[in-house]
């Protein structure tokens, strides 16, 4: 297993490969037999993310991961399909872009001004679906994504503090180290009041990854050019791509991804879905803009972490259930009970 060393800051622990692997094994020992029942969530790569999120503290990382295991068994994020959330997705308020940033990270676009429902649970399931889809399509050497937030049409009535709090909790606690950078593009002045309300629910590491970007500021434009191919980036974010969101084309794209994901789960393969940049040019698929395109760095967001390279990690574990969906019925209840035996304190 090779390691890609990133530039570390004075506030981040610097660990050798052997020390990192020892920490990972320590967490696996704390988890006990549960780690064997859910190897997909308890892989070296996954445990490494939880350790980094907790500054390599094994007890804190194990507690965080146990909470995720319990949440996953109850929420079952990997079972959410397009048809379950298509109503939420109708306006394009959250969707995966058909391009990557220059570091090969998946791009999720948020348009809170296009909110079309008041069902908080449905909204959260939609966001979780989008995040799961983005994670499953990441290149093998990448674990992060970029979030672009377009504030067109946004007002304080578009979102609730409760929904924001629950969303932040899920994304931070159950998808640690997945955010590379979050771009808040042209936020209105009134957003500052909302930001003040939700900021206490955002962890410092996550908060540091958020960038306020304004179209009329040269420095902001420079940042976007450094991150994106401007010919692919949406016009809403200062790019030159005017295609926009096409619901029917996006729906077809997601249904195809759902089929690939479920085929992959049931075949026991944990290889990611073909990514945008590595897809075979011999086949084509419709993107959210309705345009036909060829289908076929382990970069820790803040640059302050040293981490294991995911490129050569084999997450496939023969003979065990691969995901929370595979742990069903009484077995799932038993696992939840194990997690609740004073282990989450």
UniProtKB/TrEMBL annotation:
Q: Which domain of life is it from?
A: Eukaryota
Polar residues: which segments have biased composition? 275-292
From which lineage does this chain's organism come?
Eukaryota, Viridiplantae, Streptophyta, Embryophyta, Tracheophyta
Per the database entry, which stretches of residues form a coiled coil?
A: none
- Report the protein name in the record: CRAL-TRIO domain-containing protein
- Annotated stretches, region: Disordered: 275-306
Which GO molecular-function terms appear in the entry? phosphatidylinositol transfer activity
Q: Which PANTHER family does the UniProt entry name for this protein?
A: GH16843P, OS01G0264700 PROTEIN
CRAL-TRIO domain residues are: 82-245
């Amino acid at each position: 297993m090779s390691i890609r060393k990133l530039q570390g800051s004075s506030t981040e622990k610097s660990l050798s490969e052997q020390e990192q692997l020892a920490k990972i094994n320590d967490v696996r020992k704390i988890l006990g037999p549960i780690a064997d029942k859910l190897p997909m969530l308890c892989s070296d790569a996954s445990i490494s993310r939880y350790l980094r999120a907790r500054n390599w503290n094994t007890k804190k990382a194990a507690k965080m991961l146990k909470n995720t295991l319990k949440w996953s068994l109850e929420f079952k994020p990997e079972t959410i399909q397009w048809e379950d959330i298509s109503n939420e997705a109708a306006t394009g308020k959250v969707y995966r872009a058909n391009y990557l940033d220059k570091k090969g990270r998946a791009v999720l676009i948020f348009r809170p001004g296009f909110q079309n429902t008041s069902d908080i649970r449905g909204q959260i399931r939609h966001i979780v679906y989008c995040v799961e889809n983005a994670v499953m399509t990441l290149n093998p050497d990448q674990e992060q994504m970029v979030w672009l937030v377009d504030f067109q049409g946004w007002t304080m009535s578009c979102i609730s503090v409760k929904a924001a709090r629950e969303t932040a909790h899920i994304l931070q606690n159950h998808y640690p180290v997945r955010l590379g950078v979050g771009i808040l593009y042209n936020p209105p002045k009134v957003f500052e009041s909302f930001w003040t309300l939700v900021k206490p629910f955002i962890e410092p590491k996550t908060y540091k990854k958020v960038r306020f970007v304004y179209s009329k500021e040269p420095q902001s434009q420079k940042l976007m050019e450094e991150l994106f191919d401007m010919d692919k980036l949406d016009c809403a974010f200062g790019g030159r791509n005017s295609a926009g969101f096409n619901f029917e084309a996006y729906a077809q794209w997601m249904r195809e991804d759902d089929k690939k994901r479920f085929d992959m789960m049931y075949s026991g393969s944990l290889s990611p879905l073909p990514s945008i940049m590595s897809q075979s040019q011999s086949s084509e698929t419709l993107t959210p803009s309705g345009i036909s395109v060829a289908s076929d760095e382990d970069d820790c967001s803040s640059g302050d972490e040293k981490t294991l390279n995911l490129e050569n990690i084999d997450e496939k574990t023969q003979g065990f259930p691969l995901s929370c969906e595979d742990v069903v019925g009484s077995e799932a209840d038993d696992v939840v009970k194990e997690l609740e035996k004073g282990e989450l304190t």
